[in-house]
Each structure stands twice: as structure tokens, then as C-alpha cells.
Design a protein that fits this description.
Elements (H helix, E strand, L loop, with lengths): L1 H28 L23 E2 L2 E2 L4 E6 L2 E6 L6
Antiparallel strand pairs: 1-2, 3-4
């Protein structure tokens, strides 16, 4: 009976350590950096990309204009602020 009592806390600790390790590994694997879509990036020397938000809420229909060095372009953001 003494052997069964000692084995129970040891198994419990082992399971806790195992699940904590598994949780930590899965959490680290899910962390990926955010990035914008890249379309025709090899055509230009400079790239402007991002996500337009206000207090964390994406803004739709914002006009972004770029003009300079012989280049001119305008784009409106979509529902996701892209």
C-alpha cells in the first residue's frame, strides 16, 4: 500500500510537467510575424505596405496616395484595412 501512495504524486507531477511542456511548445509554434500581401514587389525599388486601423479596428475606404521620384499611385483600403 505504501508503494501505491508514493507512485500517485510522482505520476501527477510527471503528467503536469508533460502537459506544461506540450502547451509551451505548441504556443511557441503558433507565433508568426504579421506581414502584408506582397504583389509585384520585384518591380519597384521601394515598397509601402501596411494595415490601416484606428484603436485596433480596420478602416475601410481610406485613400492612400504616393507621389514622388516619377512614381504616382493611389489605393483605397478594403474592409480589413489592407
Amino acid at each position: 500500500m505504501k508503494l501505491a501512495r508514493r507512485a500517485q504524486p510522482r505520476r501527477t507531477r510527471l503528467l503536469i510537467v508533460l502537459f506544461a511542456t506540450l502547451f509551451a511548445a505548441l504556443s511557441l509554434m503558433s507565433i508568426t510575424p504579421a506581414h502584408a500581401d506582397e504583389i509585384n514587389t520585384d518591380e519597384y525599388d521601394f515598397i509601402l505596405s501596411g494595415n490601416v486601423k484606428n484603436d485596433g479596428v480596420p478602416l475601410d475606404g481610406i485613400l492612400i496616395s504616393v507621389d514622388g521620384n516619377g512614381y504616382q499611385a493611389s489605393v483605397k483600403t478594403d474592409a480589413e484595412g489592407k
